[in-house]
Write a structure and sequence with these properties.
The protein is built from 4 helices and 4 strands, in the order H-H-E-H-E-E-E-H. It has 121 residues and is α+β, with helices and mostly antiparallel strands. The chain folds into 2 domains: 36 residues, no CATH class; 80 residues, Surface presentation of antigens (SPOA) (Roll). It is elongated and about 50 Å long. The two termini are 34 Å apart. Belongs to the FliN/MopA/SpaO family. GO terms for molecular function: cytoskeletal motor activity. It comes from Massilia cellulosiltytica. This is Flagellar motor switch protein FliN.
Length: 121
């Protein structure tokens, strides 16, 4: 399922009014979300692909050809570790999987590779 078709970008981003209030300190520090970087209007609707990476495995072509319906491949990540958040293939942070109604969602743990300040200025 493509989440771009299901959700508009405004459902995910903090709206401009809330971001302005947070930036001006009108809300308490505990209640205010981190102020979102200000992007030029024309850049706000550029689509990006957000993915969660559970882990990876390096295998030979022979092993790939032997994969069947009951095959199990060990990954390089430990069970319970946070997943890697990637935007267009570049790692930007870590998250946990959560259930949101009947769908999966992600709970962001940290964002250490997301630097929109460079393109916003």
């Amino acid at each position: 399922m493509n989440l771009n078709d299901q959700f508009a970008g405004d459902d995910i981003l903090i709206d401009d009014e809330l971001a302005d209030e947070a930036a001006e300190g009108k809300q308490s520090a505990a209640a205010a979300p981190k102020a979102a970087p200000r992007l030029p209007q024309m850049m706000r609707r550029i689509p990006v692909t957000l993915t969660l990476e559970v882990g990876s495995a390096r295998i030979s072509l022979q092993e790939l050809m032997a994969i069947g319906p009951d095959s199990v491949l060990p990954l390089d990540a430990m069970a319970g570790e946070p997943l890697v958040i990637k935007v267009n293939g570049a790692a930007i942070g870590r998250a946990e999987v959560v259930v949101a109604g009947e769908q999966y969602g992600l709970k962001v743990i940290d964002l250490d590779g997301l630097n929109l300040d460079l393109i916003a200025s």
